[in-house]
Write a structure and sequence with these properties.
Rieske Iron-sulfur Protein, 205 residues, 34% strand, alpha+beta
Length: 205
Amino acid sequence: MSAEKESSGGELSPDPNEQPDRRQFIKGASCAIGAAIGAVPMVAGVRVALDPLGKEGGDRDGKFFQLANLGDLKPGIPKKYSIFDDRKDKWTSYKNVPVGAVYLLKTSAKSTESDDANATAAEAETVIAFNTVCPHLGCFVDYRTDERDFFCPCHDSNFDLKGDMKKGVSPRGMDTLQVEIREESEIWVKFQHFKANTKDKVAIS
């Protein structure tokens, strides 16, 4: 039914029977718009309250962790170690939570005089550490025993035991981590995460 009707003079005039409906519609629409505008800061506040990206404890410069001893590794065979650390967001502290993982690979001797009785284990052996995250899009890399390589199942990138890419779509090789041998046999690794899908290795935490 039309909201207007013809008057005796031939002009259109509002239908008084439908005015309340129009007023209710306008009032309802105004309330809905006001509620939507008011909800914006509320939603933003909830997001801040729940957003885990506000966590503290990450360090772009990295942090050293003792993961193993030289005697725990067999030459030429990577071994995976999980990294645990304390984390804190805006509300809660978390103790000993998993933050990543590392492959450790003991390689050939640093010194050509490794048979020297005075050479320490640190002088005779070296260790390479790789972050287990693929530099392409952040999937986890597996070690394949038969192929003796690292393999990302997400996009079929393959890396050799030096971390160099054999084939695939990753923009760079596996990310190596700084290693220190302390007390002649303790393996300490500086753990960091790096920006994905870039040619350059850029630390982000």
